[in-house]
Design brief:
This protein has helices spanning about 5-25, 55-65, 75-90, and strands at about 30-40, 45-55, 90, 100, 100-110, 110-120, 125-130, 145-150, 155-160, 165-170. The chain is α+β, with helices and mostly antiparallel strands and about 170 residues long. The protein has 2 domains: about 1-25; about 30-170, no CATH class. The longest helix is centred in the N-terminal third of the chain and has 25 residues, at about 5-25.
């Protein structure tokens, strides 16, 4: 068998053997976050829950706040990251009037880091202008998905690529 053909077969076999081992690495490169905006009729509040993969949050805090930042072990780093998230997530009335959200808290839960915000539900709200820029300045491939619940069916806004603002209209049917 020619030397080149032997080399090619060896490379194909090596690739087939090593490909499954690299799959976990690719799983960590998804760079996604999920946010849920809930209009809670029981409390009368507009509640926001941001969910980030701990792996992404760990890398982000070191890039943004320095190598001493430790989201797993330091409450201070967790608060700093939560504040970073709330500074980059904004909602407004359809006319552009801001809706101010307060930081309720944050927590590590398994593979996820959660950040919670809320405010009283504004009266006669017909839609939202949403901005979600968390981690997007670090990783252009970062996708932030926002699901809005409690005003009709679930509405989804996806921030990816160059998208900075999205509008969710509550008067539109599903």
């Amino acid at each position: 068998m020619p030397r080149f053909l032997t080399f090619l077969i060896a490379m194909l076999i090596a690739g087939a053997i090593l490909a499954p081992a690299s799959a976990p690495t690719f799983a960590h490169e998804q760079k996604t976050a999920i946010t849920k905006i809930l209009f809670n009729p029981r409390t009368g509040n507009l509640e926001v829950a941001h969910r980030f993969l701990v792996h992404d949050a760990e890398h982000a805090v070191r890039m943004i706040f320095g190598t001493d930042a430790d989201i797993l072990a330091k409450d201070e780093t967790q608060l700093t990251f939560a504040t970073y998230v709330t500074d980059r997530f904004k909602i407004a009335h359809p006319d552009g009037t801001p809706i101010v959200l307060g930081l309720v808290g944050f927590e590590l839960e398994g593979r996820f880091f959660w950040v919670y915000q809320e405010t009283e539900t504004p009266p006669k709200l017909t839609g939202l202008i949403i901005k979600h820029g968390a981690l997007r300045e670090l990783w252009p491939s970062q996708t932030n998905t926002v699901n809005v619940e409690g005003k009709g069916g679930v509405k989804t806004a996806t921030f990816e690529g160059s998208v900075e603002l999205l509008i969710v209209d509550f008067s539109e049917p599903e």
